[in-house]
Amino acid sequence: MPKFTSAFRRSSNPHKNLTGVRSSRAPSSLKEGVMGRSTEDLDDLFTEEVMGNTTKSWRQFFSVWDIPALIVFTALFFTVLLQFLTRYVLNDSLSWTEEAARYLLILLAFTGALRCQLRDTHIRLEFIDGFVGHLLHPIKIFAAIVTTGMFGFLLYSLYILARQTSFQKMVSLPFPKYYLYALLLAALVALVVLQLRQLWRLVKGGDA
Q1: At what angle do helices 66-84 and 95-119 cross, to 10 degrees?
Q2: What are the tens digits of pLDDT across the range 133-189?
Q3: Which residue range or ranges hold the Tripartite ATP-independent periplasmic transporters DctQ component domain (predicted)?
């Protein structure tokens, strides 16, 4: 029984060799694999090339077209927060916060569409692209023409609506409605300009 115990103790320690002397280092394959990978990861994290690509990627995610949407989203966030605090904490809600949040949400939809239009990330059925083959480019041109027409129709309809209701004021805010219509018109004009530019690129044979 003592012989079995001593043999088990020698074999249970992976850092001891057959003579019973403790080894000063771990197995070379395991050590090189772990240390080599961690060293390479650290080198990749702090190389100028990767850090430069990271900075470039941040610039790709944010542009001048994102500023209107960020401003509207920030205003909407604080308006909804104020509405929540006054209604459920102070039990004395501000009536204008609900209407302001509704108008800001409408404005956010149009300003956010600028970002989607610029990067061509609007929701669409992308699985159709794999079935049309060489007809994909003409279909993209047709879709761009239809989208441009839709934006133009929205722009014209909003202009008519603004002219007919420009005298009306908001219910709980001391501002006329044409302030909101003017901002929406500016967003729609920008959308039409972006869509025309992408359509021109498609017609020339490039990618939108």
Answers
A1: 150
A2: 788 788 888 988 998 999 999 999 999 988 888 788 888 888 888 888 999 999 999
A3: 77-204
CA–CA gap between residue 17 and residue 19 (Å, rounded): 6
> Are the C-beta atoms of residues 156 and 192 closer than 8 Å to each other?
no
Confidence label for 9 from pLDDT (cuts 50, 70 and 90): very low
Q: How far is it, in rounded angstroms, from Cα 90 to Cα 74?
A: 23
The upper half-sphere exposure of residue 101, i.e. CA atoms within 13 Å in the direction of its Cβ, equals 13
Residue 198 contacts residue 208 (beta carbons within 8 Å): yes
Query: Model pTM?
Result: 0.62
- CB of 141 within 8 A of CB of 203? yes
**Cβ distance 99 to 171 under 8 Å?**
yes
Query: Which pair of tokens denotes residue 55?
Result: 């900075």
Which residues have C-beta within 8 Å of that of residue 171, sequence separation ≥ 6?
99
Q: How far apart are CA 124 and CA 141, in angstroms?
A: 15
Spell out the domain ranges in the chain.
2-49, 62-203
Tokens for 61? 């995610």
Q: Do you know the residue count of the chain?
A: 208
- List pLDDT tens digits, range 123-138: 776 667 777 778 878 8
